[in-house]
Design brief:
elongated; two-stranded antiparallel ribbon; 1% strand
């Protein structure tokens, strides 16, 4: 009884911290004041981006490349967050050729994703082994989500400490975010107000970046859990040690589960495909900028401050790129396991009609489930290696200037 209670406590793949974050930005289904949240985030992000890009343009010909790269890396990270929010806000899926209701303030795709997760958990509640399997997936998802969000928040905190506590000149009133403001921000109490506002905004934005990355991990792990359940079902009805006897109803349920997995993966692809493209471009440039700062900071007079506030930021950006690439790799590997499980069973001992249906499952599983980079190429660990190699090449070019 205690075990069942523990399982039901984690009976949701999406952790509470991710749900709260999605509610804050107006993405979660039936979130209160979603329109107000979207307008607030649009206004704040747009204002910050205008002043950030203004700073980049003004200091484009600056001799201090490290300061320019520092501001550019933060600016591009904020731009990437804007792209992610816009995609989630504007992604609509109309059905039956009719328009969505004007009361619908949520992208249809993500709404279907949340509904599918709830349906999968409801189905698992009727099977103890499936519930145990998905409970393990949920616990793993919760740990990874909290870790990712915590790392992003910690990176901002360490960055801010490096700006304030370890600056070489106490009279140098450097801002957390490099902005070209239309007023003098170097005098008190304006400086303190700007710094406080920037800290809160930077911490909130970093947390949202972590939430959207954690959401991808959660969705991919949920697909992996459903694939594991499908594989277990195949091995149960088609054992190797005795002649299989199955009904068409059982085979039909396996086909439906496989089709649901395919549809769920297509929804993830619809949400994250163009986000992955923006992520690929942004991460390549940001990793290049941060790598250049780290290399220049080694041995410099004020290198300790720059190195402290940049190193964890560099690690988190690499982690963010790795998460996206590994998610695509994970889906590809998992999708192959479906066909392997069916092929290794005694499928050839079934009746011709049953055999024919199961062969369709094997053939369909040969088409890998994955996430693409803007519909151009698949996300994989090879793409992560390409990002690192491209960034290293650009760093060497900058160092030669």
């Amino acid at each position: 009884m205690l075990k069942l209670r523990c399982l039901m406590m984690s009976a949701n793949t999406i952790t509470r911290s991710v749900e709260i974050g999605l509610r804050v930005v107006g993405i979660w289904p039936s979130a209160s004041y979603a329109i107000i949240s979207r307008l607030f985030w649009t206004a704040t992000m747009l204002t910050a981006q205008i002043f950030q890009y203004r700073h980049v343009v003004v200091h484009l010909n600056s001799e201090d490349l490290s300061r320019l790269m520092d501001g550019l890396s933060a600016t591009l990270s904020y731009s990437l967050l804007c792209v992610k929010l816009i995609v989630f806000w504007t992604k609509q899926r109309h059905r039956g050729g009719t328009r969505c209701s004007t009361k619908s303030i949520l992208p249809r795709v993500f709404s279907d994703v949340v509904a599918s997760i709830a349906a999968d958990w409801k189905e698992c509640g009727n099977a103890g082994d499936a519930l145990c399997s998905m409970s393990g997936v949920a616990n793993l998802s919760h740990r990874f989500s909290n870790l990712i969000i915590g790392l992003h928040s910690t990176a901002v905190l360490v960055y801010c400490i490096g700006v304030v506590a370890l600056r070489s000149d106490p009279a140098d009133r450097e801002l957390f975010l490099k902005m070209e403001l239309p007023f003098d921000s170097g005098t008190s109490p304006t400086y303190e107000l700007v710094m406080t506002t920037q800290f809160l905004h930077q911490m909130t934005a970093a947390t949202m970046i972590g939430v959207l990355s954690a959401l991808l991990v959660t969705l991919v792990l949920h697909v992996g859990g459903q694939i594991d359940i499908l594989r277990d079902r195949l091995l149960e009805i088609l054992p190797k040690d005795k002649k299989p006897t199955v009904s068409m109803v059982t085979i039909g349920s396996l086909i439906r589960r496989h089709q649901n997995i395919i549809i769920f993966t297509e929804r993830i692809e619809s949400l994250y495909s163009y986000i992955a493209l923006a992520q690929f471009i942004s991460n390549t440039i940001v990793i290049c900028c941060l790598g250049f700062i780290i290399v220049n900071s080694i041995g410099a007079d004020d290198g300790s401050s720059m190195l402290l506030r940049t190193l964890l930021f560099y690690i988190v950006i690499n982690l963010e790129a790795f998460i996206f690439c590994y998610a695509g790799e994970y889906l590809s590997i998992k999708s192959k396991m479906i066909g392997d499980a069916a092929y290794e069973s005694l499928w050839y001992d079934l009746t011709p009609s049953e055999n024919r249906i199961l062969l369709f499952l094997i053939m369909r599983s040969q088409k890998q489930l994955t996430i693409t980079v803007g519909r151009f190429t698949n996300l994989s660990l090879q793409q992560f290696a390409n990002i690192i190699k491209s960034s290293a090449s650009y760093i060497s070019v900058l160092l030669a200037l």
